[in-house]
């Protein structure tokens, strides 16, 4: 079964470029396009895509609100959202991740990265590239805890190993990379990640990464 993709961007030329890239892949099918958030909601309901490639700044309804409605409790379908961004709009990316996006990608990313991101998100994983995540959070460090505040009580429910895993997730490492770093199996890492999400009431590893920074557990710029 091909991955069904909906393209959402208010620039037709960009949508055309994305369509050409994605339709060259045998396992990806572009099922529709939308020029703003409201159209995106209608298309999601009508077309039931697996992945929505979502711009942020658009008329009528922006990508953050559209993401919130597509992935929220009233969602109607399996669609996951992959946000497209440029670095002058990073503050909106953080809001999109909070709203339920499964990751983000730069608009000028190479074609192979776009294709890989679609596959990763469709497979239920998060697209959280370490270099982009670090630059994003470093840029907005002034809006995050100083490190002097007490950590949330919820973190005390995690074991020491689960805290380690959460920190590595926040750095953007994949399960395989975390397994290699901690000298455990990938299956063990998946179990730890699942426990972290359950205990903290988080939906996926993207929200886990944002939580780790917002709670002060991980500081921007830290290795």
Span between termini: 40 Å
Q: Which shape, going by the Cα principal axes?
A: globular
What count of helical segments does DSSP give?
10
What is the topology, as strand order, of the major beta sheet? Answer: 2-1-3-4-5
- Largest sheet at a glance? 5 strands, parallel
| Beta-strand content bin | 5-15%
Quickly give the structural class.
alpha/beta
Helix and strand sequence? EHEHEHEHEHHHHHH
- The number of distinct β-strands equals 5
- Give the % helix: 40-55%
Any idea what the radius of gyration is?
A: 17 Å
Average pLDDT, rounded to a whole number, is: 83
Q: Uncertain spans, ≥5 residues at pLDDT below 50?
A: none
Provide an overview of this structure.
- By secondary structure, the chain is an alpha/beta fold.
- Helices cover 48% and strands 12% of the residues.
- The chain has 10 helices and 5 strands, in the order E-H-E-H-E-H-E-H-E-H-H-H-H-H-H.
- It has a 5-stranded parallel beta sheet, with helices on both faces.
- Helix 8 crosses helix 9.
- Keywords: DNA-binding, Phosphoprotein, Transcription, Transcription regulation.
């Amino acid at each position: 079964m091909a991955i069904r993709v909906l393209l959402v961007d208010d620039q037709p030329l960009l949508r055309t470029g994305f369509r050409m890239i994605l339709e060259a892949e045998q396992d990806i099918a572009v099922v529709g396009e939308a020029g703003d958030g409201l159209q995106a909601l209608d298309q999601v309901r009508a077309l039931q895509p697996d992945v929505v490639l979502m711009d942020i700044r658009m008329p009528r309804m922006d990508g953050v609100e559209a993401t919130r409605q597509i992935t929220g409790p009233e969602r109607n379908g399996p669609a996951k959202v992959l946000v497209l961004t440029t670095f002058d709009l990073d503050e909106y990316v953080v809001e999109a991740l909070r709203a339920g996006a499964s990751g983000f990608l730069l608009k000028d990313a190479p074609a192979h990265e776009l294709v890989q991101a679609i596959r990763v998100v469709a497979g239920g994983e998060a697209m959280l590239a370490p270099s982009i995540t670090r630059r994003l959070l470093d840029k907005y460090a002034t809006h995050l805890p100083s490190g002097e505040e007490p950590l949330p009580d919820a973190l005390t429910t995690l074991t020491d190993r689960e805290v380690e895993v959460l920190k590595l997730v926040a750095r953007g490492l994949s399960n395989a990379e975390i397994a290699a770093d901690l000298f455990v199996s990938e299956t063990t890492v998946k179990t730890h990640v699942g426990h972290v999400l359950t205990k903290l009431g988080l939906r996926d590893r993207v929200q886990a990464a944002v939580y780790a920074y917002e709670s002060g557990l991980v500081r921007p710029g830290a290795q």
